[in-house]
Amino acid sequence: MLHAAPGQEKTVNNKNEDMIVLCGANSYEKKYYFNDQFGILPQRIKDELQILCVSFTEKCGGIFTLEYDDEGKLEMKTEATESDVMYDEIGAGLEVKKLQETKKDLFESMELFYKVFAGGGM
Questions:
Q1: CA distance to 20, 72, 76, 104, per residue, from 92 (Å)
Q2: What are φ and ψ of residue 54, in 5° steps?
Q3: For residue 55, which of 20, 89, 88, 27 has the smallest C-alpha distance?
Q4: Domain layout of the chain by residue ranges
Q5: Cβ neighbours, 10 Å, residue 8
Q6: Which residues make beta-bridge pairs with 34?
Q7: What percent of the chain has pLDDT over 70?
Q8: Other beta carbons within 10 Å of 31
Q9: How many whole angstroms separate alpha carbon 78 and alpha carbon 95?
């Protein structure tokens, strides 16, 4: 998860696990991040992930990341600064649920990819 000084951010998913960020978007800095460790992914998958992350932050604001837990499960995380009065926490939660349904195949493929390549010394 992206970290900030204590008390500076609120989170929807507040697990304190060691996570590996696949990609994410930040509405405050207008930036997209993709972890170069996953550079062997096909370009069309990278593009789909970028569109997904950027679209999420355009709709809901805040910061959105896709992260792998230590078992290779892909999780969506969203957070915002305390001062972000435009952040829609309920809308973000609903958008996460929508993505879980509409992008289920993509997320399952990404989990399989991680398990195959992480086991191979990624």
A1: 21, 23, 10, 17
A2: -65, -40
A3: 27
A4: 18-118
A5: 10
A6: 23
A7: 83
A8: 12
A9: 10
Rounded to an integer, the average pLDDT of 92-114 is 95
Find the mean pLDDT for residues 82-108: 93
Identify the band that residue 109 occupies on the pLDDT scale cut at 50, 70 and 90: very high
The pLDDT of residue 70: 87
Average confidence (pLDDT) over 5-21: 50
- Residue 16 to residue 18: CA distance in whole angstroms: 7
Residue 62 and residue 91: Cα distance in Å, rounded? 12
Question: DSSP code of 4?
Answer: -
Q: Taking a C-beta distance cutoff of 8 angstroms, is the pair 116, 108 a contact? A: no
Ordered DSSP codes for 61-99 = -SEEEEEE-TTS-EEEEEEEETT-TT--HHHHHHHHHHH
| Amino acid letter for position 27 | S
